[in-house]
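Example record used in the benchmark description.
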Amino acid sequence: MTKPTTARHSPAPDPTASMEVMLAQLDLMGIDPADLATFAAERGRTGGATVAAFVADRVLGVLTKGQRDAWGSYLPVVTQGLPGLCSCFCDACLTVYKGNSTWQPCPCLVAQKCRCSKAMLGQGAIGTDSCLETCGGVGERPLASVHLADWEHLARWAQLRAQKRVAVRNRSRGAEGRATFTHDGRSAVEHLRNLVSTLYKLALGDHVPGVRENLGIQMSLKPRPAVAARGYSEQQLVELWQALFTSGSNDVELDMVIIWFCLETGSRRGGPIGLRVGDLLFHAGCVRLGEKNGKFDDQPVSTRLLEFLLGHGLRRGDIVIDNPEQLAVDEITVAHVVSRQVTLRTDAPVFFYKTPIKVTATEGSERSEPRPLTRKRFETLWNRLKRELPWLDELHGRPHDLRKTMGTFVERAFGHAVAQGWLRHTVNDVTGGYTMAGSEAIEEAHRWLVGEG
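Model output (C-alpha cells):
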C-alpha cells in the first residue's frame, strides 16, 4: 500500500529580497532602473496613469483660481488636442472659427480634401501642407512617454489658435473701419508652458515612474517684448470721463464709480470686484484691497469716495443688518455706521449692477437678489469707450491702463519708491527694502492726486 504524500507549500517570496536581486542583476548589466522605467513607459508597459488621468486626479485639485482661469482653455489642448481646427487663414476657414473652444470643421475637413493655398496655410505658427492635418492630444499616453517635441508641437497649435482668434477679430474690425490688432500668439505658448511645467512639478513630487525631469521648463519661449508706455494724458482722462456719459451706458453710476475707484486707488480689476463692506475702513480713511496672490493692502481714499461707495452699496445691495431708527437708505451716513447706529453686513459686496438677478428657489418660486459686479462689466464698459473715443480704440485701451496712468503721475511727482508703494508692488531687492515708502508718503501722494495736498 502506497503511503500518501503531503503537499508542500513553498513560502511566499519576500518582495524586498526579490527587488534587491533584480537591482543587482540590472547593475551587472549596466542598466539604470530609472532608464528601465522610462523605456517601459515609452512602450506603454507601465502601471502609471495616463496624462488625462493624472491631470484629473492630481493637477485640477491643486490649481489656484487664477491658474484655472488662465489655463482653462489649455487643459483640453493637452488631453484632447484641437480636433477639427485647421491651420489655414483663408476666409472660408476663418468663417467657421468662433473662439478658443467653439469652431466647426472647415469646408476642406468636411470634404476631406484641401484646396487651400500654401500661402494661407503658412501664415500661422504651424506650417502644414493641408487642412486635413490637425492636432491630437496626449491624454491617453503615459506621462513618461511624452517627449519635449510633443509639447512643442502642442504649443505651436495653441499659438496658432490664438493667431486665428486675432485674425477673426481683425477681419471684423477691419470691416468696421477700426484699428486692427498685432499679436503673434506668444502668450498662448507661455500659458501652455506654465501648465506643462506645473504638471511635471507635481509628477516629480509624486515620483511618477519614468518621469525624471521637468520638460515644461525646457520648452522654447520667445522673450516678452518691452513694456510699452500706456499712460494717458490729462486731456485724454478728461475725454474718457466725459465719454462715460455719452457712450450709451445703461448704468452710468456703476461705470462712473468703477472709473473713479480705479483712478483714485490705482486698483486692478480684482479690486472693486472683490471689495466687501468690511473693507471700507471709515476710521482710517482707507479701503482694503485684495487683488492678487492672497495679498491685502490698505489704500488711502478720499472721504467723498468712501461716502459714495457706502451709498452705492446701500442703494443696490441688501447690506443692512440692523437699523433701529428705521432710517431711509438715503439718510444713512458714514457717521451712522461709525457710531454703530446702523449695522452693515461686512461680508457683502460693495459694487452692484442696477438690475437685480432672479434666483429660482427649490420649490420653483423666483425671487430677486442684488447682483454683484463681475469682470464682464469691464469688458462692456471699455468696448463702449473705445467706440466713443477713436484714440482709445487705436491704443487698444484696457482697464489696466488707468493704473499705469496714475502710477506714472505719482512717480513723476514723488519718485520711484512712493510710486512702488502706491501701486502696491512687491519690493524684491535689498535697496528697495531700505528705501521703500511708508504710509505717510503714500497718503501724501494720494492727497496730491485728489487735489487735497
